[in-house]
Amino acid sequence: MPIIQTCYKPSHIWKDAHFSTIYPSTLRKVTGIQYKRERIELWDGDFLDLDWSFAGSTPPNPPKSKKKKTAAQPATVLASKSLAILSHGFLGNSSRPYLLGGVKAFNAIGWDALAWNHRGLSGVNNRLERITIHGGSDDLEAVINHALSKGTYEEIALVGYSKGANISLKYAGEKGVDIPKEIKKIIGISSPTDLQGSVDAMGKSGFYAERFKSKLLKFLKNRWELIDSQMFKEFEKYKFLDDFTNYYIAPLHGMKDAEEYYEQCAAAPYVPKIRVPSLILNAKNDPVLSESCAMLEVAKDSDYIYSEYPNYGGHCGFYLSNADSLYYGDKRMIEFVQNKIVV
User: Fold this and answer.
1) pTM of the shown model
2) Residue 71 confidence (pLDDT)
3) Which residue ranges make up each domain of the chain?
4) Which among 210, 211, 173 is positioned nearest to 191, based on CA atoms?
5) Considering only CA atoms, which of 273, 110, 114, 275 is closest in space to residue 184?
6) What one-character DSSP code corresponds to residue 4?
7) Which end of the chain is more exposed for a tag (fewer CB within 10 A), N or C?
8) pLDDT on residue 74
9) Residue 222: exposed, middle, or buried by beta-carbon count in 10 A (0-12, 13-18, 19+)?
């Protein structure tokens, strides 16, 4: 598909890459979301915590009430047949402002939303040392299969932010023509499809690399009982985020080093194999993504990949001033699933 002509033209300070990245991440407020949590068991003995937000009052497969209905009871609201499955970014969770914005946007058009928490990020530690890595499409597939088992949804959109975008796009490319028929759209916001390119864009000791390193170290300290004591002592010696990937995360998940991790987990090689309409919304001034992450050349030759690459927006930012607290990315994904984006 041709590159999408962007409508995003922020003013003043919202053109600044860092302000438009940090403000939405730390100060954005999204209200009105009430989650219902569900835990699912995984093939390896671990679990994932899922947070549901239903557009109507009746969730899929609700428990049968033992009370008799009376004539005075209000009519049951029909459950939605459309579902958005939302995947958060690196060391995020279902309560991140960008993800809540997506949930709110989908609920507003009558879609249910399912925000899943990566392993160890739901507020409780998991049973296993393994985490949900950038290429963790197996965890996403478990979530998708669980949602499909409800037997309710006829239309599903996969929505990912940053790391979650890479996972969603990689899953769709791995499945190719065999993707479940219910999955109609894929949306990736600030997608690091070229992981090595993203690492290079951040810089080994840049501000964002240091920020992510601090968050990762805090995360690992909170699950110290799952980690070999000798390995745990090594963490304090690591100077860069790349060191954690190289010496700990990659080997833990069966990869030799950071280079192999970036190569195997990147969505970029799989994006050309995607066979459902997919939107990649990246910003040119994203401080943690390279231009290669936008998949512009692939989009030019694909019948399925739409790439929108505005000058501004930062990382998972795309601020938009309005009364409903929704940002440009939220509105753009709704336009995409409703086939309202003009190419």
Assistant:
1) 0.93
2) 41
3) 1-57+79-194+270-343, 201-265
4) 173
5) 275
6) B
7) C
8) 41
9) exposed
Helices (H) and strands (E) in the chain, counts: 12, 8
Burial-class residue 237 by CB neighbours within 10 Å (0-12, 13-18, 19+).
exposed
Q: Which pair of tokens denotes residue 326?
A: 């929704």
Q: What are the residues facing 185 on neighbouring strands?
A: 157
Show the tokens assigned to 336.
């995409």
User: Which tens digits make up the pLDDT trace of 65-114?
Assistant: 444 444 444 434 568 999 999 999 999 999 999 999 999 999 999 999 99
Q: Which two tokens stand for residue 56?
A: 């109507």
What CA–CA distance (Å, rounded) separates 302 from 324? Answer: 34
Q: Which residue in 134, 133, 177 sits closest to 272, CA to CA? A: 177
Q: Are 307 and 296 in contact (CB under 8 A)?
A: yes
CA distance 198 to 142: 27
Euclidean distance between CA atoms 247 and 224, whole angstroms: 17
pLDDT (0 to 100) of residue 65: 46
* Domain 1-57+79-194+270-343 top-level CATH class: alpha beta
User: Is 279 within 8 Å of 333 (Cβ atoms)?
Assistant: yes
Residue 158 near residue 85 (C-beta atoms within 8 A) = yes
According to DSSP, residue 79 is labeled: P
Distance CA 315, CA 192 (A): 10
pLDDT tens digits, 137-156: 999 999 999 999 999 999 99
3: how many CB neighbours lie within 10 A of its CB? 16
What pLDDT digit, counting tens, does each position of 274-321 carry? 999 999 999 999 999 999 999 999 999 999 999 999 999 999 999 999
What is the identity of the amino acid at 144?
I
